[in-house]
Design brief:
The chain has 376 residues and is mainly alpha-helical. 35% of the residues lie in helices and 5% in strands. The protein has 3 domains: 64 residues, Homeodomain-like (Arc Repressor Mutant, subunit A), CATH 1.10.10.60; 47 residues, Homeodomain-like (Arc Repressor Mutant, subunit A, Orthogonal Bundle), CATH 1.10.10.60; 242 residues, no CATH class. The radius of gyration is 24 Å and the shape is elongated.
Length: 376
DNA sequence: AAAACCTCCAACCGCTACATG
DNA sequence: TCATGTAGCGGTTGGAGGTTT
């Protein structure tokens, strides 16, 4: 960017831990004059520090509204919940936890929560059970045919695998070809994922808010998901989607539909957390008996496209308001006011895919992760 | 008792977005 | 439109203090 450093190096600028005297100088100055210009503040306050250092000291430590001390269990739960929605957006998380700084939350996450989740076998990035702890071969070798139960613990006869493992009809036999394909692709994806996590890839010009929660666990075709000939643009009020996007309350109620059956599956099968929409091959999809939007009977019941989080970034977490959310040309409006669920230009306008495609499933499958819905 | 190791967190670094001239 | 300055953000580091061997 060609900018000069915030303060001249080796020019008498002190670094390292702050002394009590320095703290007092900073607090006194800001109390009297406020903090308008951090660059000139240290000189005016009589501090041998750079403005950046002063700002950090104030915002992370000296600010009077900072809540010190241990995090309560409620705060911890909130952090986990918010992290599942926002990822490493520490400032956004901090904005919803009064009195806590982004730095403090970040530290707490890295030193406590992250480790605890790992111990529990939960991937702290995806908030899903870790794939390496799961035995996918058991899926393949299980007696998941017809309606005999899939062999998973907790999946009694009459229970079901995610529907995309089956052919047409609820009592349809499992689509073994698809299962093999998925296995192969998951294996490939797993390898890629181990070297570059989704959120890491997000931080490399791939906005993590591009995550799309689509009909958790269902396959979808391009036309279902994006702007194919019969496709949907995000937010387009089309039958099957519009009813799910009327209000934020809808999201929660719809989410509730999944809390029992899919959670069971979630604990055993770890799918990519975010939908991929790359080049599609409809012929290949048809050969795999993947139901299309038009033919799939479950679509209107619980399938949806939704960006990132059901909770608007700029609102508080109380989503029980009576406000009405509508979608026009891809933008969300609440009570006539544009809201943003995520920051950044996360969607490819044409494909409605996360920009950059975090998970390349070879262009065949779009598997959304029903595990990752933080509302469950 | 002391060395080695671990944990924690304040502070720093480097980057991006935005503002301004 | 471009160059530069500023604020803010997320990742990383260094060292103090605690724990284990």
């Amino acid at each position: 960017m060609g900018r000069s450093p915030c303060c001249e190096k080796n020019n008498g600028v002190k670094k390292g831990p702050w002394t009590q005297e320095e703290d007092e100088l900073l607090v006194d100055y800001i109390t009297k004059h406020g903090y308008g210009n951090w660059r000139t503040l240290p000189k005016n306050a009589g501090l041998q520090r750079c403005g950046k250092s002063c700002r950090l000291r104030w915002t992370n430590y000296l600010r009077p509204d900072i809540k010190r001390g241990r995090f309560s269990s409620e705060e911890e739960d909130a952090i986990i919940h918010l992290h599942s929605i926002l990822g490493n957006k520490w400032s956004a998380i901090a904005a919803r936890l009064p009195g806590r700084t982004d730095n403090e939350i970040k530290n707490f996450w890295n030193t406590h929560i992250r480790k605890r989740l790992l111990r529990m076998g939960i991937d702290p990035v995806t908030h899903c059970p870790r794939l390496e702890l799961l035995d996918l071969s058991s899926i393949l070798s299980s007696s998941c045919y017809g309606n005999r139960g899939c062999g998973f613990e907790g999946c009694a006869p009459g229970g079901s695998l995610p529907r995309y493992f089956h052919g047409a009809g609820d009592n349809r036999p499992i689509n073994t070809d698809l299962l093999k394909l998925a296995t192969t692709l998951f294996s490939t994806q797993r390898h890629e994922y181990s070297s570059l996590s989704h959120r890491e890839s997000c931080q490399e010009n791939r906005p993590c808010e591009a995550q799309v929660q689509v009909d958790r666990g269902h396959l979808f075709t391009q036309s279902q998901f994006s702007g194919g000939p019969e496709g949907l643009q995000f937010g387009q009020t089309t039958e099957g989607f519009s009813q799910l996007e009327q209000t934020s309350d809808d999201w929660e109620s719809r989410s509730g539909l999944y809390t029992t059956s899919l959670e069971e599956e979630c604990s055993r099968v770890d799918f990519p957390s975010y939908a991929y929409c790359g080049p599609w091959d409809d012929q290949a999809l048809l050969q795999q008996n993947i139901p299309t939007y038009d033919s799939y009977d479950g679509m209107a019941e619980g399938n949806f496209i939704y960006p990132c989080s059901p909770t608007p970034m700029n609102s508080n977490s109380n989503s029980n308001s009576n406000s009405t959310t509508t979608h026009i040309n891809g933008s969300a409006y609440e009570d006539g006011r544009e809201i943003s669920y995520c920051s950044g230009d996360m969607m490819d306008e044409l494909t409605m895919a996360p920009v950059g495609g975090a998970f390349d499933l070879s262009g065949y499958l779009g598997v959304a992760n029903y595990c990752n819905n933080p509302l469950i």
